[in-house]
Amino acid sequence: MSEFKAKIISIVEYFIHYMVFLLVVTGIHEYFHLVTLRMLGGDGYIKLTWYGGACVPTVLPEKGLWLFYLSGGAFTALVLFLLSWLFENEIEERCAVLPFILNQAVYSILEATLITRLPRGEYLKIAMLVGAMTHSIGILIGFLTLLEYMLGTEVLFLKSARTIKRKIRG
Ligand SMILES: [Zn+2]
User: Fold this and answer.
1) What pLDDT shows up at residue 19?
2) What is the pLDDT of residues 44-81, one digit of tens each?
3) From the CA of 33, how far away is ligand 1's center (Å)?
4) Fewest Cβ atoms nearer than 10 Å: which of 21, 70, 113, 158?
5) In angstroms, what is the span from residue 99 Cα to ligand 1's centroid?
6) What does DSSP assign to residue 86?
7) Hey, what long-range contacts does 4-11 have (CB within 8 A, 24 or more apart)?
8) pTM value?
9) Which residues crowd ion ligand 1, with CB under 5 Å?
């Protein structure tokens, strides 16, 4: 395979992975909310909304409501991280999943701390702003990392990723 063709395939793979994560991430997020809600003794259902979906509680848990709000983003970020980082997945997939991990991790903290404290409209405004910011930062880092990989250089992100990994592995 020519080098040029390999680079095109890398970019196509990146976009396919990105689209797949985009399609499944809301479902996973709301599913974790629902499972956590039921484990805490509450109940509810998942409905589709204009921004994706929402887990609507019908019975609130007596304790640990914050965990219900935290669970969607936190568990989604954790599962995506475990699937792509700990297993030796392709670099294209890791770069594509990065915006979702970053976004879900930050969003979970926002959801756990602000959703019950702010009026609905105000919360949605902040959530969207933070969501767009973390996602864009993730896309930028992911795409630059892919670029480094395709150009065969290790300058910034690939280099630091390898350094961190080496430290974790000891
Ligand atoms: Zn949520």
Assistant:
1) 95
2) 999 988 878 899 999 999 999 999 999 999 999 999 99
3) 7
4) 113
5) 16
6) I
7) 7/150, 10/91, 10/92, 10/146, 10/149, 10/150, 11/146, 11/150
8) 0.88
9) 72, 111
